[in-house]
Amino acid sequence: MDVGERLQIEALWRAGQEIPQIAVLTGRHRSTVWRELQRNHSYRHGHKNPAGRSTARPAGRGGLYRWGYLAGRAQERAAARARRPKPAKLGPGTALRAEVLQRLRQRHSPRQIAHGLPREHPGAAGWAVSHETIYQAIYVQGRGSLRAELADQVALRSGRAHRRARRIPGGAVRSARAWATP
Description:
This protein is mainly alpha-helical. It folds into two domains: 3-82, no CATH class; 95-150. The chain has eight helices and three strands; from the N terminus they run αααβββααααα. The chain has helices at residues 3-14, 19-26, 30-40, 71-82, 95-105, 110-120, 131-139, 145-150; strands at 41-42, 47-48, 68-69. A three-stranded antiparallel beta sheet has the order 1-3-2. Helix 6 (110-120) crosses helix 7 (131-139). The termini are far apart. The model has no long low-confidence stretch (mean pLDDT 78).
């Protein structure tokens, strides 16, 4: 949603329009308009919807209609939510990263870690992490920042941590050798 649409919503809200009417006039779905008003409403700031002040309103009215809405303030809040890069959940020095690293060293898969952490830390919002976030920390972020910490782990049956490329015997190029051997 852009500033123009938010200004239009603000004007219609100030005029006392209901959410379904605002949706029709802006060309957006009513749930989109409701979500915008829900995310960016304010009790202290903005123009209140006149329908929210009436005492003889039908059942179910009120709630969101009592709040104010300012397009400029809504745009600032939306820009802050969309700002990138977001802080990494498994950033260096966090307790969550240390826990994930310890479990990876114990040979737990990222999926097992993602499912196990909320069970062991119920109600702690900071301890929830998706398996995809763990995979990204291993392979993508900072060229695999977790991968560097896990590199000392011996993962192959041969005892090495990494695979070695096989060499062509005799140093011959593929085109110089026969395709079939007798």
